[in-house]
Amino acid sequence: MKKCLTLNLQIYILIKRANRQVLFLRCFGDKTFSYCNLTSIEIPDSVISIGNSAFAGTSLVSITIPDSVISIGESAFMWCTDLKNITIENPKCEIADSQETIYTMADQNGNYFFKGTIYGYENSTAQAYAEKYNIKFAVIGTEYNGVKGDANGDGKLRASDAAFIAKTLAEASVKGEKVTAENYPNADFNGDGKVTAADAAAIAKYLAEQSIKK
Fold it and tell me: Are 53 and 30 in contact (CB under 8 A)?
């Protein structure tokens, strides 16, 4: 066994060396595992809150936050570059309203992005958070299979996808690179096996037609 002391709450937790399963804990304090080489963890139902930056910079690939957790603090999962999916089982869990709460990367303009998938229930706070910050969302028990035309990977088909295709093609042209359907499968909107300006045009046309129908 190994004792780990949280930085702010000053409480002890016990962790199994083999699988890092927490045996007893009430809450994760601020920066509990911040920038630790933590690849996996099973959070027990005794936990009710996750503090600010609790898992920031860890090497988690996947994590399930049980129904018992009622709040997730700011920057709780910031710079988790390996994180592929996060499941939030409490449909009313309070998630800190910031792009920095859950993200895997940032651009030069200070925008934060989570390239994984958030799993939760319909009409949950997890879904609301994902939609507000353009993160892929899937209902617990299902798989996210992508949205045709969703070139930028935000889980929705919008004009920004047409713009993303145009921008990506322009940048690739300058660098002498090719944009392929293999690398951007959802960008091949017209289904010709390629990613070209024709896909951007097709998306713009489709969205215009849908707007008229409304």
Answer: yes
Q: Quick one: pLDDT at residue 10?
A: 35
> Is residue 180 predicted with pLDDT exceeding 70?
yes
The DSSP symbol for 214 reads -
| C-alpha pair distances (Å), 166 with each of 135, 136, 147, 153, 190 | 21, 22, 18, 15, 15
The strand pair at 105-106 and 62-65 is best described as unpaired
SS3 78: coil
Q: Exposure of 85 by Cβ count < 10 A (0-12 exposed, 13-18 middle, 19+ buried)?
A: middle
Other residues' Cβ atoms within 10 Å of the Cβ of residue 141: 7
- Identify which of 132, 61, 63, 60 has the alpha carbon closest to the alpha carbon of residue 95: 132
CA dihedral sign, ordered 97, 35, 118, 66: negative
Q: What is the pTM of this model?
A: 0.63
Enter the tokens of residue 199.
Answer: 């896909």
List, in sequence order, the alpha helices (H) in 118-158.
125-132
Q: What is the mean pLDDT of residues 76-97?
A: 96
Mean pLDDT of 162-175: 90
